[in-house]
Amino acid sequence: MGLPGKPSKQSKPSKPDKLNKLGKHGKPMKGVKDMKTIVVFNQKGGVGKTSTVINLMSEFTTRGKKVLVVDLDAQRNLTTFCGVREADRSVIDWLTLKGGIDEITQTKKYGDIIPADRTLETELLRFASMPAFVIRIRDLLSKIPQDRYDVVLIDCPPAVNQLTAAALVAADYVLIPTEAEFFSADGVGRIAETIAQVRPLNQEIKVLGVLIVKYNSRRTLTQALEAKLGAAVERLLGCEIFRTKIRATVDVPAAQATGLSVKEYRRDSKAAKDYSALADEIENIIGDRK
Fold it and tell me: Is the pTM of this model over 0.85?
């Protein structure tokens, strides 16, 4: 399924470059917005998108950052994790201009959330009929005072539709979680095509990197596929696989089941150390260390 609108020819994106947003001494340049929007995207399901958002949300908050997460997935896993059962107002109200950010946002343990609604998928036809819906999220985020949040994390559904297109148009950066499996390398091409299609509406979009989750370095198969995936990522997305990999552990699902980040659930967990290292990498790339 292609993106709404006319696809453009695929062009190889430039690598994330913090220097184009930073001054000589690493300080933000004048006119550059403070709030960074990171879209966590992969059109394949079950690759750790929500887990990535949850643990980065927690990690950034503990570092003193003001974080907003936006749940665009009808499965509501991020919303449920944050303790929102049935919200009176949801992301649908925000997207259809029936409620402002202050009315819809809920403040939770690790930051603010715009909760999802289970009817999101059934709303796709309505979104498709709305003029310029593809720029809706970008326009809504631009109305938020830039000093209100340091980071906005958007959890996308495992599909290419009006919601993911609008999220990518709003993105400063895209983070792509995946497992080091055979079809993951093939999937890189589809992801690159999707990003290329929104580039005419978002020339500044950059891919932060590809994050390998459920990683087991002792598996020879994983090592071979990691090399293949790395070559595909470099060629098609113009970025690299993150040095940090999220190691396979039962602590991640166990933590989420109790409503905790993996660091708070078990501080000495391998995954807790990995998500902390990932946050370090991201801050180094976007030049946003506090």
Answer: yes
